[in-house]
Structures are given as C-alpha cells and as structure tokens.
Design a protein that fits this description.
Structural class of chain A: alpha/beta
Strand content of chain C: 5-15%
Shape of chain C: globular
Number of strands of chain C: 10
Helix content of chain C: 55-70%
Helix content of chain A: 25-40%
Largest sheet of chain C: 6 strands, antiparallel
Shape of chain A: elongated
CATH topology of chain A: Glutaredoxin
Number of helices of chain C: 19
Strand content of chain A: 15-25%
CATH class of chain A: Alpha Beta
CATH superfamily of chain A: Glutaredoxin
Number of domains of chain A: 1
Oligomer: heterotrimer
Chains: A alpha/beta, B mainly alpha, C alpha+beta
C-alpha cells in the first residue's frame, strides 16, 4: 500500500533540503538588508573631522555613492582600509564613511596614519544611525544608486573580488541609466 | 572549535551607557511589563542565539535603548516591532511573521490537530467493530 | 606513543565492526551457526578496543599531552583534573568517541541480556548495531580523529571553554548520550524484525525494557542540561527552544510515544507497523540531532564544529541508515496486520490519542526548528523561530495530552465501562479543580486561565497517578498486587504532573528585576530583601573573579548569602557570569552580577523563581518510574516462569 512509502519519500525530501543547506556558500551570519531595492535610510551626523559641520545623505543626492561603516576597534576595517584607499584614487564613485560606535581621537588618528579614503565621515557615537541602517557588525558597505536606493550591501571587509564581481556591474548598470 | 556564548567584546565605552540600561527602565508598571515583554522577543543579531534581554553585547544594549525611546514616545508594541523589522528584517524577531511561508508555522498546530483527530477517529472506528478476544498473533508472518 | 595506540585501537575496532555487522547477517540468512556466533565476541572485542582508545585520550588529557591537537585545543596546564577528564568529551572529536564507546557498551549489554532471544534475531540485532558502529568509527577516523598530532607541541593549551568548566559537563553529555545511543537498540530490534518478517507480541516484550531504559537516561540527560543551563548561563532561564535543545527533545517525545505504542503491541498485538515506524523514528531523530549539531546547518549556542564537509558525511550516513530502514519498512509493514479490536472507551483509544498528540508535538517542533532553513533556501530571506512560537505550538497538543493522561491510565484494555471510570475519577477531578485554582491564589496571589489550566492539569495527573498505588497499598477491595510495570507507570505519570506544576508556577510567578546596588543597599523583590554586603577579588585555579556577597532576608530574617561572580578566565580571557543561587525546594533566589556603574554601584539581576526545582525533580521522578517499570519481572524470566507469574499477578500494564 502506498502509505507505507510516505515516510521514505518524506525523508528523501528532507535529505534534499539538508544537502542544499550544507552548501559552503551559505553564510549563516549574513543578514540580507531589508533596504535592498528600497530607498536608503537618511542620516544627519556631525562630521568626524570638522565637528561643528554636519554631513548627511544629501551630500550624494543624485549620484552613485558608497557608504562605509567603519570603526577603529574593528579588525576587518583595518583589513579593507588599504583597498578603500585604492578605490578612492581609482574609482569615480565617492566613498562616504560613517564612524560607528567609536571615539573621536582614535578615529582621527587612524585616518591620519592610514589615510582617509572618504569624501567625508560622519561621527555616529551612539549608533542611532547604525541602527537606522540595520548595521550589526562593522565593516558594512552600502552601494547607493542615483535615486537614493540601496543597490548592494556588503558585510565584512570589502574585497577586490566583491568589488569586481558585485559592485562594478551594479555601478555600471546604475550609471548606464542616464536621464 | 567551541563557541563562546556571551558576546565577543566587553566594550566599556563609558559607564554612562550601562547606567541607562540598568535598574527599572520605566516607573510605570505597565510600560515596564511591555518593555520586558518586547525585549524578550527581540533577537540579538550579533549573537549565536540570544534575546537582547539576556545579551550584554553593544548592539543588544543599543537596541534596548532605542526600544525604550520608542516606548516613551508612545509607540505601540506593534510599532516597535515594525521599527526593528524595517531595519533588520524578520530575523530580528523570535516570533515568526504571520505571512509568507511562516504563516504555515502558525496554521500548523490547528491543522495537525485536525488531521490527528481524523486519523484517530478512523483508527478507532475501524477497530470498534473488530473482535475483542483476539490478541495473540494468529497471522503467520512471512518467514525468511 | 599512547595517542598512536588509541588511534590504532580505533582502527582495530573498525575492523571488528565490519565482522560484527557482515558475518552474523550473512549467518542468519544462511542459518550458519559459526557465522552468527561471531556476533557476540566481535561486539565485546569492539568494546574493549574502543575503551582502550577512550582511555588513551583520557590519559593524554591527564598528562596534558599538548602534542595532541585535540588536547591542546581544549585543555590547559592549570585546568582542574576533574575538568581535564570531562574535557575529553567537551568538543566534537572527543564527544564522538564517547558516542561510539556508549554504542559499544549498549551492544555488550544486549549480548549479555539476550539469552532468551532466538539466535537469528539476536545475531541480526548485534549486526545492525555493528553497522552503526562502523559508520561512526569511519566518520571519526576519516574526519574527526581525536588523536591528530600537533607538531611541534604547544607549550600550553588553549583551555577548555569556560562555560564547560563545570560539574554539569561531567554528567550531562554522558547521560544524554546513553539515552540517545540507547534508542539504537530498539532500532536494531526493529530492523531485525523487518528482515525476518516476524513481529509479534514477544518482540514487543523484548523491546520494551531496552526502550524504557534508553528513555529514562534521555529524560535525566535533558533535565540535567536544562538545570546546567539555568545555573551556569546566568540569566535564569531553563529552556530556550534552541535548535540543539529541540534536537534532544524530539527523540524523547517519539521515545515516549514508542513506549506507549509498545504497550499496545505487547498486550494486543496491535499497531505493529506503527510501532515499527516509531522505533525507526526515535533513533533517526537521535541521528538527526547529531547531524544538526555537528554540521553547522543551523545557528545554535550549542553547535560543535561548523564544517559542511563533516556535515555531508553524517548526512550520507543518515541517508543510508534511515533510508535503508524505511525501505525495509515499506516492504514489510503492509503484511503486519492484526484483527484485534477495541471499543471506543478503552486504553487502546487513549494510547492512540497519546501517540497522535506526541507526534503532533514532535512535528511542530521539527517544523519550527527547520523553518528558518526552509525559508532561507526558498527565497534567501532569514527568519527566526524562537520561544514565542514554540511555547504556543507545544502547548496546543500537550495540554490535551496531560488532561487525557489521567483518564487513560485507569482505563481497561479492550472495553471500559464509562460509569466505573467516572466514579473512580470524579473525586480527584473535583479536588484538582479546586486545588488548581486555590494554590496559585493562596500562595502566589494570582491566577489566570492558562495558569488555572496548568495547575488543574498537574494536580489532576498527580492525584490520578496515586489512586491505584494507594488502593493497592491499603489492600482495598478490587485491587491486585501491582506489578512493577504498573508502579513504574504511576510514578512516571506522577512525575509528569510534578513537572507541569513546576513549569506552570514558575512561568506565571517568576519575578525578575534589574537593580542598581551600592554596597550596603537593599532592594526588595517579591518579598525578599537582597543586600549587597561587599565585593572582593578572588582567584580560582585558572580564573580571576570579582565576587559579590549578597545577603538575603525575608520578613527581617536572614535567609542566606549568595556569592555571584564575574569571572575572567586567564587563557581565553572571556568574561563569565556565575550566578549566586539560594536554592529551596519551593523556590530559588537567583542573583547575577551585571556591570559596574561607577560610584561603587553595580547593576544586579535579581530573580525569584517559585517551584522551579519541581521541573527537574519531575523529570527525575519520570525517570525513576521508567527504571521501576523496566525492571518488571516479566522481562527477566523465562517463558514458562512468565506464564505462572502472569496468572498470579494479573495482566501486565
């Protein structure tokens, strides 16, 4: 009778699911951003280097931009810093930084010692902006389109691979949509 | 490699951060109860599997602070959850959403009870007409 | 040298496991005595070699041999000796070795206590267990060798995870594994029955004590895990529906269903194919648990190794073992029919309901645990399923189960006159309703619908469980001397009621408060006063700690002092909270240090947890009931002796 084969079939399906679940590409820690394809969150912060001035998302209104959350206590940020410096020289896309949950002095030192790839950095001491962007672990890098939508979110140090395979095509597509 | 349960770093960014976070959050009993109820259902997105009520990592206490702010602004529980989901996705709530695939999760208990009830009823009604005095095996099994 | 001996012993065990599996199976098929006779010696030999291997690993830990990678990763010179021993099973490789050792141990027990089983049957059972052992040994040797060398040797080890440096680690995993692995016996019995095509009441009688024994260890193992989490993790919870916790709970639920289904099969020869499926499922869920914990497929605080490659191996093993069993099932089950019947009001009916509800509970937990995986594979989005879901989902089948349990145990087989049942249970029911509403009101000052339902159900079950024992004890009219099986059942069911009472009261009346305390401050929580007397630095063998002294008063009387600590372990440098607990049979007072606030003030979490000990006590009582039931004489006597016992004592439970 058919009903006795049901457990076997159900088990087979379960094993299939598990095989897919074991895919090494899967990263349990990566949370997809709910902002993908939607308008990026706003921010309005004091500037890191010039505390009485402010920086906000208005700064990159209408252009493709990168927003990078970083901090001096973050090991991955140090790892990606060199690459960010390179990008700031070679790429047309402006990089805006948000110094997340950090302290001003060490942050300024960091930038002067290692170089400053950012057009400007906002200082988000208490993570209100971080939470508004759904940030939970530095570094996190967002690619914003001309219309202010989030095109990409990259968690962890920005690698050349990710830049070439994910960011460049997305940037090209965004730039291609000239009015 | 064994995994550490409590957070990764003890950030002592300043004692003021901790002071805000401790003691009763709200004087009002009802608000306090709502607060505790909410933070018991919010996941610490950085931790292995903990609520922000029980985790001491930075992001947990930041989220608790935001929730206190929202509650004191008069937001409802639903609005607080909405705020979090907007930013972190459904993952941040331990209560699965009642939409999409996870709606099945919420239907399941009732559905399974229904199916179980039908199965039980069928078994019982089949057996109630069968003889009571049979209990030793009388059917020869296929011997191999 | 010793690690190499240990490694070699495992290889020998692997070779023996092949013999133990292949030869008796072949022998049973061909009726070859010599081949079947290989089973027992092979099993004993395998156990000896695995024990040697385990001994070598333990020796390496005791000698702090940091040229062994596993030892260097999980031990340290200043680690207390007791933890050096328990560190053996503190991580993936060693715990696998423990698993394999216990599997060999159960096999040896089966060899010892199977003299009355037909030769072919026991040969097949031992062979199946040999096959399981082969799979695990292969996995260990190929992917998880605990004897791998670290050269050059480390000067000092990386220390055992501080959370594991606790007596809980010494007992929780071994006992839990004894339970997990023990279900392999019922599994092997099922396979043997399916191969031969013979499944009868005798088979059920043989299988029952093995199943009950494994179940009771699993019960204690899970309870110990819960208790350990409670006092060690510092936040006062005792169950979090974490995937690994669920992985241990599902075999328990199905094991419980299996015990009850076996009762029907033994008594009436009914539900044979269903019992078979349950026997397969219980161990399958154990294996599934192993997979979930060690493959990194789900996020959990308990996860061992995050290694998809190991995961694939375990999955393949799972596929072969469970898939094979289910193929056998699809082949044999259709012919296992029975013509026996029962009336709607009968013990059989209640046992059907028992099984249905337990399976529903298991399915809901499985679904909730795997849902995040399914959703992620479907559309990449991530959801979480945690206590807000599980608590509701689990309660839905469980509340009816607990309520029906009280009635079912008094219902006769085949046909029960409803009137007699009502007469017997009317008084306990009324008492339960009254007491269930009054106790919370009087002792804890409140009630609610959920609370009343829980309390009534708990009292109802406890009262119902003691009716027959009390009558029997008083040698009242109409009572027969109770068999151990019947006593065990009463005790175990009483334990369930006890457990439910604990859960209900602690869930409803826990008081938790975060407070700021300076030295000399007192805070009042739930009628108890907590005073921070002082803070001092102390050191342990491998940690430094800040220890608080908190005095507790009630109505002005001094109750006790607790010493919560914040520890920093020297090697791993991770901070750990040790709660200070004042334990009592009817309540726990739980104090955990939070963080320094400056100005000599500290944030402290204070909790009042009424009847929380009933949770674990209830579980231990359940296990005790299982122990009593498993030792029933009818499992230990020969066929003719059994007949006379049966006539004397009335029918088995």
């Amino acid at each position: 009778m058919l009903k006795f084969v049901v457990p076997l079939i159900a088990f087979g399906l379960l094993v299939g699911v598990f095989i897919k679940g074991l895919d090494p590409e899967r990263d349990l820690k990566k949370l997809p951003s709910p902002f993908l394809g939607k308008e990026a969150p706003h921010f309005d912060l004091p500037r890191l280097k010039v505390p009485n001035e402010r920086i906000s998302n208005q700064a990159y209104d209408g252009e493709v931009a990168i927003v990078n959350f970083w901090a001096t206590w973050c090991v991955g940020c140090r790892q990606e810093h060199g690459f960010l410096m390179e990008l700031s020289r070679t790429s047309d896309v402006p990089i805006y930084g948000i110094d997340w949950r950090d302290q001003r002095e060490p942050a300024l030192q960091w930038l002067s010692q290692l170089g400053d790839p950012y057009v400007a950095s906002g200082f988000d001491a208490d993570s209100v902006t971080g939470i508004n962007w759904g940030v939970y672990g530095a570094p996190e890098t967002f690619l914003i389109g001309k219309d202010g939508r989030v095109l990409l979110k990259h968690l962890g140090p920005l690698s050349r691979d990710a830049w070439e395979n994910d960011f460049l095509p997305a940037i090209a597509a965004a730039e291609g949509n000239q009015p | 490699m064994s995994r550490l349960f409590l957070g990764v770093i003890f950030l002592l960014v300043g004692w003021s951060v901790w002071a805000i976070d401790t003691g009763r959050a709200f004087e009002d009993d009802e608000m306090q109860a709502r607060y505790v109820e909410i933070i018991s259902e919010v996941r610490c997105v950085q931790c292995q599997n903990q609520t922000i009520k029980d985790s001491n990592v930075q992001i947990a206490s930041d989220l608790r602070r935001e929730i206190r702010r929202l509650l004191s602004e008069g937001k409802t529980n639903a609005q607080v959850f909405e705020f979090l989901v907007q930013r972190y996705g459904d993952f941040v709530l331990y209560r699965p959403p009642m939409s999409g695939f996870s709606l099945l999760l919420w239907i399941a208990p009732g559905l399974f009870l229904l199916i179980g009830g039908i199965v039980a009823a069928r078994v019982i009604s089949k057996r109630m007409t069968m003889p009571l005095d049979v209990d030793d095996d009388e059917i020869d099994q296929v011997a191999s | 040298m010793i690690p190499e001996v240990g490694h070699f012993a495992l290889i020998l065990a692997l070779a023996l496991s092949i013999c133990q599996c292949a030869l008796p199976l072949l022998g049973a098929h061909r009726n070859d005595q010599a081949m079947m006779g290989v089973a027992r010696p092979a099993a004993v030999g395998q156990f000896v070699f695995i024990a040697i291997s385990f001994g070598c690993l333990t020796w390496s830990f005791l000698q702090s041999d940091f040229s062994v990678l596993y030892v260097a990763s999980h031990s340290q010179l200043s680690l207390p000796t007791a933890y050096k021993i328990s560190a053996v099973w503190g991580a993936h490789e060693g715990s696998l070795l423990l698993w394999v050792l216990l599997l060999a141990g159960w096999t040896v027990l089966v060899c010892r206590y199977s003299s009355e089983l037909p030769e072919k049957f026991s040969a097949r059972v031992i062979a199946v267990m040999g096959g399981l052992s082969f799979g695990f040994l292969l996995f260990t040797l190929l992917t998880s060798n605990p004897f791998e060398r670290l050269l050059p040797a480390a000067a000092d080890g990386a220390d055992l995870n501080p959370l594991l440096q606790d007596p809980g680690l010494a007992i929780h995993p071994p006992i839990l594994y004894i339970g997990y692995v023990g279900f392999s016996v019922a599994f092997a019995f099922a396979i043997a029955a399916m191969i031969s095509g013979d499944l009868d009441q005798k088979w059920a009688r043989w299988t029952r004590p093995w199943t009950t024994s494994a179940w009771l260890f699993l019960t204690v193992g899970i309870a110990l895990g819960s208790w350990w989490a409670y006092y060690e993790l510092g936040w006062g919870g005792w169950w979090f529906w974490d995937p690994v916790e669920n992985a241990s709970f599902m075999p328990w639920l199905i094991g419980t269903a299996l015990i009850h289904s076996l009762a029907v099969t033994e008594k009436r020869g009914l539900f044979k194919s269903w019992t078979l499926l349950l026997a397969i499922s219980a161990f399958s869920l154990s294996l599934l648990g192993t997979f979930l914990v060690r493959s990194g497929i789900l996020i959990s605080v308990h996860s061992f190794a995050v290694d998809p490659e190991r995961g694939l191996f375990i999955l393949a093993f799972l596929g072969i073992v469970i898939g094979g069993a289910l193929v056998l099932y699809a082949w044999r089950a259709p012919s296992m029919d029975s013509e026996a019947g029962f009336r709607p009001v009968s013990r059989e009916t209640f046992l059907v309901l028992n099984n249905v509800l337990l399976v529903i509970a298991t399915a809901l937990i499985l679904g909730g645990t795997l849902a995040p995986l399914f959703v992620e594979l479907l559309d990449g989005s991530k959801i979480s399923v945690g206590p807000p879901y599980f608590e509701i989902a689990f309660a839905i089948p469980m509340v009816p189960l607990v309520l029906l349990m009280a009635i079912g145990m008094h219902t006769a087989w085949r046909n029960q006159a409803p009137k007699a049942l009502v007469n017997k249970l009317r008084l306990p029911a009324m008492v339960a309703v009254v007491v269930g509403i009054l106790i919370p009101l009087i002792f804890y000052g409140g009630t609610s619908v959920m609370l009343a339902v829980g309390a009534i159900a708990a009292i109802w079950v406890m009262l119902a469980s003691v009716i027959d024992p009390i009558r029997s004890w008083k040698r009242g009219a109409g009572s027969v001397a109770l068999t151990r099986g019947a006593i065990g059942m009463s005790v175990a069911h009483f334990g369930v009621g006890f457990f439910v009472l604990g859960v209900t009261v602690v869930s409803a009346f826990t008081v938790e408060a975060d407070r700021n305390l300076r030295i000399g401050d007192r805070e009042n929580v739930a009628g108890y006063e907590f005073e921070l007397r002082g803070l001092k630095n102390t050191t342990g063998p491998n940690y430094q700690a800040l220890e608080g002294e908190v005095d507790i008063y009630k109505d002005g009387d001094f109750i006790g002092q607790v010493r919560p600590q914040k520890r920093t372990y020297l090697v791993q440098k991770s901070p750990m909270t040790e709660a200070g607990i004042d334990a009592g049979w009817n309540r726990d007072l739980f104090v955990a240090l939070g963080d320094p606030l400056g100005n000599d003030a500290w944030s402290v979490r204070l909790q009042y947890k009424p009847l929380i000990r009933f949770i674990w006590l209830g579980a231990f009582i359940m296990a005790l009931g299982g122990l009593i039931a498993a030792s029933d004489r009818r499992y230990r006597l020969t066929a003719t002796q059994k007949e006379s016992v049966r006539i004397q004592q009335g029918e088995p439970a």
